[in-house]
Amino acid sequence: MSLFVDGREIALDRDGFLVDLSDWSEAVAEALAGREELVLETGHWEVIHLLREFYAQFQLSPATRPLIKYAALKLGPDKGNSLHLNRLFKGTPAKLAAKLAGLPKPSNCL
């Protein structure tokens, strides 16, 4: 599976995650979101950049509970809660947000 962005072919695994994490860019995130029929807005970008920060610090993609706690810590309780994150990411915030952020699939996501 692959994605074409700015004239480049980006390899994806069978679940649609990047094979090479260094292929990520905001344009790649937009293209991945398009595959999910999602238009990225400010709230999405806050979480995507937050996830990339989390990954840089801890070298893993957080599951939903750690994502909610980290978002609450960094973005405040209005944005760091399951209702907000589920609304933004179609009910699968850890998995979909990680995919759009160019990170590996969280280990406990199906």
Overview of the molecule:
By secondary structure, the chain is mostly helical. The protein has 2 domains: about 1-35, Dissimilatory Siroheme-sulfite Reductase, Chain: A, domain 1 (2-Layer Sandwich), CATH 3.30.1420; about 40-100, DsrC protein, C-terminal domain (Arc Repressor Mutant, subunit A, Orthogonal Bundle), CATH 1.10.10. It has 5 helices and 2 strands. It has helices at about 25-35, 40-60, 65-75, 80-90, 95-100; strands at about 1-5, 10. A two-stranded antiparallel sheet has the order 1-2. Helix 2 (about 40-60) crosses helix 3 (about 65-75). The mean pLDDT is about 95. Its EC number is 2.8.1.-. Keywords: Cytoplasm, Transferase. This is Sulfurtransferase.
Helix count from the secondary structure assignment = 5
CATH structural fold name of the largest domain? Arc Repressor Mutant, subunit A
- Mean model confidence by pLDDT: 93
Strand element count = 2
- Secondary-structure content class: mainly alpha
Strand order of the largest sheet: 1-2
N→C terminal distance: 19 Å
Oligomer designation? single chain
Text of the CATH class of the largest domain: Mainly Alpha
Order of helices and strands: EEHHHHH
Strand fraction = 5-15%
Helix content: 40-55%
Uncertain runs: none
Shape: globular
What's the domain count?
2
The second-level CATH architecture of the largest domain is: Orthogonal Bundle
Rounded radius of gyration (Å): 13 Å
CATH homologous superfamily grouping of the largest domain: DsrC protein, C-terminal domain
